[in-house]
Amino acid sequence: MVKAVRFYETGGPEVLRLENVEVGNPGPDEVRLRHVAVGLNYADTYFRNGTYPIPMPNGIGVEAAGVVMEVGAGVTNVAVGDRVTYTGFLNTLGAYSTERLIPAAPLIKLPETIAYETAAAMTMRGLTSAYLMRRIYDFKAGDTILLHAAAGGVGLIVAQWAKLLGLNVIGTVSSEAKAEVARAHGCDHVINYSCEDVVTGVRDLTGGVGVDVVFDSVGKDTFMASLDSLKRRGLMVCVGTASGSIPPFDPQLLAMKGSLYMTRPALADYIADPTEKEALAGELFDLVGSGRLKIGINQHYALEDAVQAHRDLEARKTTGSSIFVI
Question: Enoyl reductase (ER) domain spans which residues (predicted)?
């Protein structure tokens, strides 16, 4: 019997239920997919708690890797037996499952150099890192970035990629244990915001100038510190809201703090075009397959542990990537 995690109301992790479900035959432009590994992402908590509204009841999870078992009419991009991975948004919701039906369009063929577990741990984080490093800003060797949540799944990939581009990386973390992880993955300097002031640390490290770009996945708690850490005409990239949404503000604030730029990108807009998605995935797979990017899977869960997995994630007990092993 196929198992899937579903929820019938929004709320805390306790609303998640592991159930037996029926999976039928794929319709036009769909495939039936058997999962081998499923990704755990902070975005999953937004669906669960209602930040991202969806109809109830529903499945959860947007990223996984597995094998194509059956294809529906009109599917041409994958075939039965193909190794694939995927990430997305509403069109891929329901990844916490052993098997599922899914539109064929989001599926990305996996090279043999990438294991299923690695793919599930990095498809969303890796493609996010790819567009942050290759599409958001025209980086030059010697540029300096401030990377919040530097020991998180995206943070560890961005830090490594940034070093490949010759950037100086200042990371922020919440503990000394996470500081060690961040340093091991490429951060030149690490600020422990539990006991250090981020803005003071950044200004000291940059001779008072500030950084070229801030990647902020925390949101409300770090917003002002991020702005105050930027150099004149620097770029603020809001890539998440782990601490809550950024309150409304007057854009004049950006002028007052140095004619700053600000963007709130979403992965969906950088992989909507199949050609661009293929290019970003190809570069990511090449770097990981060649060993130049390391993907750390530091937490492994079973589907029946979904409640605990969400508790660990929201309590910031995790580092690197987390996956469900099927």
Answer: 11-324
Q: Which pair of tokens denotes residue 295? A: 């993907």
pLDDT single digits (tens) 231-242: 999 999 999 888
Using DSSP bridges, classify how beta strands 30-40 and 64-71 pair: parallel, antiparallel or unpaired.
antiparallel
How is residue 174 written in tokens? 């919440």
List, as one string, the DSSP characters of 165-220: TT-EEEEEESSHHHHHHHHHTT-SEEEETTTS-HHHHHHHHTTTS-EEEEEESS-T
In-domain check, residue 131: no
Q: Splitting the chain (326 residues) into consecutive groups of 10 residues, what average pLDDT does each group show? A: 96 98 96 98 94 95 98 97 94 96 96 96 96 97 97 93 98 94 95 95 98 95 96 96 89 97 95 93 96 93 98 89 94
Which residue shows structure tokens 């925390």? 218
Q: How remote is the C-alpha of 44 from its chain's centroid?
A: 10
SS percent in the chain: helix, strand, coil, step 5:
30, 25, 40
Helix, strand or coil for residue 7?
strand
Residue 132 resides in a domain: no
Question: At a CB cut-off of 8 Å and minimum separation 6, what does 254 contact?
Answer: 227, 260, 261, 262
Give me the amino acid identity at 299. Q
